[in-house]
Design brief:
Shape: globular
Number of strands: 9
CATH class: Alpha Beta
Radius of gyration: 19 Å
Number of helices: 15
Strand order of the largest sheet: 1-4-5-6-7-8-9
CATH architecture: Alpha-Beta Barrel
Largest sheet: 7 strands, parallel
Oligomer: single chain
Strand content: 5-15%
Structural class: alpha/beta
Number of domains: 1
Helix content: 40-55%
């Protein structure tokens, strides 16, 4: 049986809303913290397929979410493209050499770095059972490129934006290379058992409209076309965080089956401006989940009501915070599961 989440992503309106939460497998769960303490650092966990599968399944066992999102990271793609990757405590990920300093063709592909991720998908899918959806994912080319060029994240991606303005041909080559690897990576996840996939464009909001069209819409459309050519039955969710009013063009022009919306988007605006019948996902502020209480319930109900007229996957506007209380997640799930269209 395909399950409520997969049915909704395929455009069916169900009485109950499916729910999963971005970063639902991770640091807010005591069982995750215990496993990480035993196993070591983040990258070691990602590359231990049995541990990564266990982490992916932990929130399913605890909360019964409608979908399990692969425990991995968007920077696995540049790692497979030949950059070195490390996660520094308190500082976040670092990639080297930085592409602002060296040419793209100085990197040598290491495709075997993708194989453990596929094994994680196989293990989760085998354990998940029917009725729940296995979600794979990748970072979108613009967001991945910002890390590859600068070697780390930044608030406004100024180094990568300047690079793209200064040498658009060189930056286009980087984006095209990411597109090619991402197509194969998503298809590999699908062939291992992912039933839907999400493209995370976490830094899409830093771009002006013309650059958004070139570096967000165009490469995501290329990925969607290629993945759909090989796996037409698999829904693709696009999540361009911070897109604002550019979200409508993204939804129309990329070819994604569903669009994720962040907490800065008015859900009523999204319902009016997105294509009729397109499934949407989102968009509770993660800080409301951290805060809990009556305001959490009021705002969550408002989101459910705003999307009453279209397929809707309840989710957050971005990832769940590390210090979110377990009881607040339980409070939210009780509300969403009790709501009916």
């Amino acid at each position: 049986m395909p399950g409520l989440l997969l049915d909704t992503l395929r455009g069916n309106q169900e009485a109950r809303r499916p729910v999963w939460l971005m970063r639902q497998a991770g640091r807010y769960l005591p069982e995750y913290r215990q496993l990480r303490a035993a196993k070591g650092g983040f990258l070691a966990l990602v590359y231990d397929s049995e541990a990564a599968a266990e982490i992916t399944l932990q929130p399913i066992r605890r909360f019964g979410f409608d979908g399990a999102i692969l425990f991995s990271d968007i920077l696995i793609v540049p790692y497979a493209m030949g950059q070195n990757l490390e996660f520094l405590a308190g500082e976040g990920p670092r990639l080297s050499p930085r592409l602002v300093d060296v040419a793209l063709d100085s990197l040598a592909m290491v495709p075997e770095r993708l194989a453990p991720i596929y094994q994680t998908v196989r293990l989760v899918r085998a354990a998940l059972g029917s009725g729940r959806t296995m979600l794979g994912f990748a970072g979108s080319p613009w967001t991945v490129a910002t890390y590859m060029v600068a070697g780390e994240g930044s608030r406004d991606q100024h180094e990568t934006r300047a690079y793209a303005y200064r040498d658009p041909a060189a930056f286009q080559a980087i984006v095209d290379a990411i597109v090619a690897v991402t197509i194969d990576y998503l298809c590999g996840q699908i062939e291992a058992g992912a039933e839907a996939v999400q493209l995370f464009d976490s830094w899409a909001g830093s771009l002006a409209p013309a650059e958004f069209a070139r570096w967000v819409i165009a490469p995501n459309a290329a990925i969607v076309r290629a993945v759909k050519a090989r796996h037409p039955e698999v829904p693709i969710i696009g999540f361009p965080k911070g897109a604002g009013e550019k979200l409508a063009a993204y939804a129309r022009e990329t070819g994604v089956d569903a669009v994720g919306i962040d907490e800065t988007i008015d859900p009523r605006w999204a319902h009016r401006n997105l294509p009729d019948g397109m499934p949407v996902q989102g968009n509770l502020d993660p800080l409301l989940l951290l805060a809990g209480g009556t305001e959490l319930e009021r705002r969550a109900t408002g989101i459910l009501d705003a999307f009453r007229g279209r397929p809707h996957v309840f989710n957050l506007g971005h990832g769940i915070g590390q210090f979110t209380p377990i009881e607040h997640v339980e409070q939210l799930l009780a509300l969403v599961r009790a709501w009916r269209r």
